[in-house]
Every structure is written in structure tokens, then in C-alpha cells.
Amino acid sequence: MLTACGAALALMALIFATGGHWEAMFFCLGLALIVDGVDGPLAREFKVAQMLPRWSGDTLDLVVDFTTYVFVPGYAIAASGLMPEFFAIPAGMLVVITGAIYFADRKMKTEDNYFRGFPAVWNLAAFYLYVLQPPAWIAAAGVVVLAALTFLPVRFVHPLRVKQWRWLNVALLALWALLALMTVVTGLQPGPIVTLPLCAIALYFLIAGLITRLA
Q1: What is the pTM of this model?
Q2: Is residue 16 part of a domain?
């Protein structure tokens, strides 16, 4: 039920997005991130798979994650007004198509819990797009590059599951969550004091994965 609540948050986020209430949309997607972070450990702790074998937590998790990580952010990117006009809808379509294929990849994670390829976290990509508001051609190029990275043999860090530098990853993730909340509260215009650390943390997680050799 906790995992399924992520679908309700996705619906709320989409409703807010269609009304142009982007801060509320990102707040709902942020809550969905929290749900996604705690539902797995709770399920394992209470042995949900053994107690309720009829229901597949893995399938439910994929369904909910696709809506919150890919589908709603895909709409937000298409409707942002930050893409070249001719590329807005194709950008959203590129997001959902590549995201769907990635979620179907049985080898999306390496044996040491790195993501193989860009892990379709389009919710984060959309968040940075709205905060930074780059020129349209840079925004479009960013979407294309991330979509291409979905299928390239590079690693991306899973902040909670990768053992290497886990304490640092978790600490930076907590700091990022605080900064992201401040960003949403300030109407996605937090100023450089918040924006610069947000970008630095994103750059760290990007480099930390790319510098490792894909097994």
C-alpha cells in the first residue's frame, strides 16, 4: 500500500503540472522519492514477499517508478516552454520511450549495485531544467545526451546501495534533499547559495559513476 501511494502522488503531480503549478508538482515527486527510498527496506524487514506472495512488489515498484521518474517528468519537460518549440513534444516522447525501454532492461544494475546507463531519473533532470532554465538549445541537447546515455556502457551511482563511499553518498543525498526542499519552497528560484551546491552534488554523482569502469 505504501508503494502504491506513489501512484497517487504521481497523479497529484500530473494534476498540478497540467495547471502549471510546477512547485507543487516537484513537491509531490519529492514525496514519491521518499516513498521509493523507504518501501523496499520496510518490505524486506517485514517479509512482505513471504506474507503476501500473491502480489509482486517488484512489479508494483516498476509501475509506480515509471510514472514518477519518467511519465510525469516527461510531460513537465514537454510543457516547460524551455525547449525549442519544434522539439518540445518530441523531447517528451523521447523521455518516455527511452525510459520505458530502460525499465524493461533486466540488466539495468551491475552486480555491485551501480546503474548501467542513465537510470531514467527524468524527475531530477526536469527539476534541474526548471531551476537552471538554460537556453533552449542547451536544454534540448541535455535531453538528447541523457537519452543516449541510457544505452551506453557507463555507470551511475545508486546512492543507497553502492558500498563504495556510501557514507558520503548518503550524506550528500540528505543535503541534496534539504536543498531541493528549499528550492521548491522558494518557487524554484532559490538563488546561487542553494543552486550552486545543488549543481555540485549532481556533478559529484555523475562523475563518481563515470570514472568507474563498467563491469
Answers
A1: 0.93
A2: yes
